[in-house]
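Q: Joint fold for the lines below.
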Amino acid sequence: MLDGLRAAARRNSDDKALRALIRACKRLLSERAEANSVAIAAELVQAYAQLPEAQRPKLFDALASDFSPDPQTVLAAATAYAQAPTARHLVKLSQVAEPPRQELLRRINRAPGGTACLIGMRRDLLTLLPSRPELLALEADFLHLLSSWFNPGFLRLEKVDWQSPAQLLEQLIQHEAVHAIDGWDDLRRRLQPDRRCYAFFHPQLPGEPLIFVEVALLPDMPAAIAPLIDKKSTPQERNSFKVAVFYSISNCQPGLRGVSLGNFLIKHVATALQRELPKLKRFCTLSPIPGLMDWLLKKPDFEALPGLKKPQLARLQAAHALLLHSCGQDLAGLQQQSADRPLEDPVQQALLSLCAAFMIHQTHSPGGDPVARFHLDNGARLERLNPAGNLARKGLRQSAGLMVNYLYDLAEVENRHERFTLGEVVHARAVAALL
Amino acid sequence: MLDGLRAAARRNSDDKALRALIRACKRLLSERAEANSVAIAAELVQAYAQLPEAQRPKLFDALASDFSPDPQTVLAAATAYAQAPTARHLVKLSQVAEPPRQELLRRINRAPGGTACLIGMRRDLLTLLPSRPELLALEADFLHLLSSWFNPGFLRLEKVDWQSPAQLLEQLIQHEAVHAIDGWDDLRRRLQPDRRCYAFFHPQLPGEPLIFVEVALLPDMPAAIAPLIDKKSTPQERNSFKVAVFYSISNCQPGLRGVSLGNFLIKHVATALQRELPKLKRFCTLSPIPGLMDWLLKKPDFEALPGLKKPQLARLQAAHALLLHSCGQDLAGLQQQSADRPLEDPVQQALLSLCAAFMIHQTHSPGGDPVARFHLDNGARLERLNPAGNLARKGLRQSAGLMVNYLYDLAEVENRHERFTLGEVVHARAVAALL
Amino acid sequence: MLDGLRAAARRNSDDKALRALIRACKRLLSERAEANSVAIAAELVQAYAQLPEAQRPKLFDALASDFSPDPQTVLAAATAYAQAPTARHLVKLSQVAEPPRQELLRRINRAPGGTACLIGMRRDLLTLLPSRPELLALEADFLHLLSSWFNPGFLRLEKVDWQSPAQLLEQLIQHEAVHAIDGWDDLRRRLQPDRRCYAFFHPQLPGEPLIFVEVALLPDMPAAIAPLIDKKSTPQERNSFKVAVFYSISNCQPGLRGVSLGNFLIKHVATALQRELPKLKRFCTLSPIPGLMDWLLKKPDFEALPGLKKPQLARLQAAHALLLHSCGQDLAGLQQQSADRPLEDPVQQALLSLCAAFMIHQTHSPGGDPVARFHLDNGARLERLNPAGNLARKGLRQSAGLMVNYLYDLAEVENRHERFTLGEVVHARAVAALL
Amino acid sequence: MLDGLRAAARRNSDDKALRALIRACKRLLSERAEANSVAIAAELVQAYAQLPEAQRPKLFDALASDFSPDPQTVLAAATAYAQAPTARHLVKLSQVAEPPRQELLRRINRAPGGTACLIGMRRDLLTLLPSRPELLALEADFLHLLSSWFNPGFLRLEKVDWQSPAQLLEQLIQHEAVHAIDGWDDLRRRLQPDRRCYAFFHPQLPGEPLIFVEVALLPDMPAAIAPLIDKKSTPQERNSFKVAVFYSISNCQPGLRGVSLGNFLIKHVATALQRELPKLKRFCTLSPIPGLMDWLLKKPDFEALPGLKKPQLARLQAAHALLLHSCGQDLAGLQQQSADRPLEDPVQQALLSLCAAFMIHQTHSPGGDPVARFHLDNGARLERLNPAGNLARKGLRQSAGLMVNYLYDLAEVENRHERFTLGEVVHARAVAALL
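A: Joint structure:
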């Protein structure tokens, strides 16, 4: 019973803390706060850090309900603007249509640590969003402002290497999401002169990478990941660098999800490398295909694929039958291969055909590959499919070992991006030939 | 005639450049540009730099007319939101009510040099504004975004001293707007340990101060400016510092007019000084009163002053009569005093009374002193009026030599600001006693 | 036979390289080289880096024999100076008595990388020295110049922490000579706010620590090493720091052996910590006693110990007998204890008595403890002996687990150092009481 | 009489200070000081700063007399070494022959500010030297150590430009010794991209340039100084740079006189410029001829010039007669020319002939030109004589307006320096043709 009393007391005190926080938000937006806003914002930043996790949804509810524009006021301004679209009416409309919480967030941002606090709030908000659609407009305000502040013009591209602070390098080990870094020795190899790492930083978050990309400098476009991340490999000479390969890109800030960073990063890095190493001829990726096996295991309906010709359809169905036959009717068997027990050649060919179909005809539809969508939308071209490119457990599970190269040609990204937005998947002829 | 042809040709080519620039703006906003936006923005930045001055108004016209929200779309969204104020309706409303040119400006900001370009555009726009009210909404968009980006959370406070780059110091000489800096020797004196200078910088504009404040560290609150800016004065010892005096604050970026900087700067500096020199007891200004003589020369209607009591009114009128009498009926005579020919004591007293009335009862009305309004709104208190505080030409012309101290008490600024917004002029008793 | 030919050819080419290098040395010293000395020195630096290891002794022979002062010339100058000790005779004497190779080394030092080259040469020379006493004068010239250049006035003290470059931190792991660092996690713990690391750097060797010291900030003088280097221990609060403990000091540059660095480092660090944390009351070490067990196992001749009184002698002999008895006559048994199997109390007491005798009466003689000699000569006081201070293998082997605290009192170091040089071992009364 | 007493009292206290300082020197050298030497050195540095100027000679006397090697000890060591030149005897000899004050200076150098103190001491010493030859050996010890410490390997070459701290730039204005800098506007012009300034710094004297050189980047080798230092000239484009002209080199530290800096500086800068601007074709100077008019006015004895052929001698005598005739027998008249009143052509030709003789045949003898000696000894070639190269007062006074270009060809400096040391003045054919 004592425990119950204690819990009640804590709840009570938590409720108080929440109400105080909401009051502080209102005060920060008030006229009175003008002359002292940085100090109030700093209190608010601290209060959020101490708010118990269970109280956060209530705070977000309050921000969603109490800090929205007034519907009637907006309607009146919109009506006036529709009747006479003058500058004065527009100014009025802009003022009343913008949710007041945007100004609140801007004022929180005035505090030391304000930016980090807002990113943390959004991270917390994003975890709630799936079950709380009523927070959608609040989320949109966060995204709107963070996108404005994490504008690539405000970001600093920095090379990360073995001279970087341990504090920073530690974060790479922690956040690498594609090919895990196996401790400091592995990391050191990935920062030698023929392997590069670049990250975006924001002046308000010094020492904290927002996103980073790992690059291998090679003589040729690579077909497999293992040699690129072999921590015992010998660094290659500068003279041999012809191709820059983006082999991993990882976000470090969950609270910045949806803020465009990766696409800018790849182009900034390509430009920087081109300047440093004018002999580089190509920029490409060596990428996973996380969606392939899911698609295959769900027994794809080839007939529903848009833009497929009859003979292609027939060949795909035959390939699928061959795969099934080779695995005793369970495609999960494809995930069991290894360097010692490779797929037989016809089976591998059938797999490549199906993958080509998946990439070219499924990407624009639900179930399409998200990595493909990222790079193609970013103006890259689907360049080559590589059998047995990644025989590690994750690679086998995702795509039966297949990997893909996307090609970045800076002169073509605008054109290719547009073609992608119009529904095309720009690809090399060799990929089409696999169908 | 040949000249005419040439001029026509140039006009023709200028028109072409303008149309290309507007097209580039539309392209930058298009879906297609997504994958290449930094490059397009960079072109736009360069194109604006080369646009002939005469073409700028036309560009602003285009930005004002072609990049506004569509009235009917906004009205529909506002109506839907008024009928059902859901998150989804609000998101939609926010999207369609924000002028598309805000996104355009954000995308320009992605380019290297983008921020500087936008500040330059706004500077140009501000010179046009008085005669072009239809550009008001465009101007509001600029101010809205620049205020968000030049948030004090994003600014860096830096001490400027004799170790600073000459490139930076040169800008102080150029922009000092209150007490002109008479060359490098004068500047050097103003950067000795008992004189300080602090400036705000933005990460995107390295080496370019946005605003700076000059501070004198003294044993007492000063009554006159000359000793503070005497370039031959001997620097005082650190132990003697009891009062920090803000004696000059100047903006360096006309394109940031209206973005709150000065109020944050004063408080940041006060906080930084307090930390460095815990023995500092007071933070105050020694400020000009630029509006006083204008007000006096226009023969103020004392009876219209709000909140004045009868006996005060009588005393003011007597004071005014005394002044007129002392100058042979032309108050401009007050602007002729000097250290050798000071005002006679009763005349000086009469002047102080009138100044106290001006500060306490006129500040909230048109014709009130702008410097008073800035500091009082910023939470300061009107502390002391100083006769013969500035006998330099400008000081005599503006205020017959009078200067004023405003007092900053960080624990009181919020409260005092609020009182000011409610119509009060917070002042020391001694000032009231002058009435 | 072919192999023989090849080896002969290689020897031939190596000899050529050596002769070329010696010629380059002579050229660098020549008048002609004046105008081009940096370039010649740079060639020499590179040539030494490529010289096969087997050729180094021959190079050192040449430097020892061909670049010494001419005996007759020196004798003439010394005679003239003895007959008339004028300034002019002294200048002449200084010129001819200094070995010309000192000027050679100074000129090599002009090249980029020259300093590192000279340190490398001395490292190589030191390995040869034991078997080649004729290189002694050459070694003395190296030491003379390096001591002049690695003067503490030219060194930079820097705090090393988790913000330091990985490249630098890696060298700590590699060079820690007292309590090995077990990987990056261990290192991270040793760089938390309650553990410090400071190193000396030379401007010519950026990023390369010369020597570093590890410090623990604690509430009390510690008696055992394990808690200090426990990588899972929780960092303590700044408020609790009363004692700074130097628990490890390691050189990183074998080529700087004999150049005074450690004594300056300890005092610099103590001064820096005192300034940062005025509440620190004491500076001490927690040090190993590497010479104790060697001394005990060699059956010390107690009667030969200087300054021992009769009753003390008797007690020491009894203590020794007790130890022998407790171990079955083999003192190596003392090295087998552990936390679970501690020494019995009387045995531990006997061991402490013997240790006290070793420290107080043996330090000035051969076989005395080198660590004791370093700290006592450096002006520290022998403060406390700690039983079971280090039960790790190395601690048991060196000193049967005993550790010692030396106390640094900056106001006393000059006095204590002098007493040490006069033959005393300054110690706390409690240590003497153990006898 | 009171004044007399006071002066006596002051003298007394000054004497005391001096004696204390000398005692501190002896203490610093003592064994006892080992453990506390940095602190003692720091006291000594402070004591010297406070020593009254009149006491300095006495301090230098003490350093000269009390800290020299003992003649008999040196003689004994030299005798032993002469009898058996072993390593051990040499080590002993080196120890006793080096004046103990060198170790004293090295220990002073351990203190913060020690290096600056020693440079200041030598500056003071150098002013005394002309009248005090007995201080010669002391001076030699200072020079010996400073040369070892201000080794070019320890110096940092830095570009100085408009981004440099005002504190540093101020020193350029103050120390420019060749073509005075007329305030900050003049300085700014000399730091534009087509004018460069480079300086050497020592890590122990941050922010204090040791020596600096000013460079003009031009399309052609210049014949006159005025356009190079015209503060209103327009900066030229990078593409036009073909020649780098060293037009001024100035020392900032009188206490480093005689330490080789200028020759290293010129070559470092030439190398750095070559790397930055590979299109640069030539490196040369535009130099004054400070000794010319002095030589001419003293009526040179042409017959005594070494290496002059008969016909040349005749022509020189004729030229001299012509000059005398043109000036009414007073060559000082040559110093009166101006742009408006140039010398008549035959007179100018006669002057050039005499100058060529002065440069080629007098440089190696007393009365030769010191600037010529510096550059020729440094490996440059006498390239061209320029009439009316400097019509400013100083230029007319020194050399009747003549200036000279020396050419630096990095591949030739070693060879040319050697030829100069063998007595030759390496010159272009065109200069010889003037004879």
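Q: Anything notable?
A: Chain B touches chain A through 71 residues (CB under 8 Å). Residues 153-285 of chain B form a domain with the Aminopeptidase fold (CATH 3.40.630.180).
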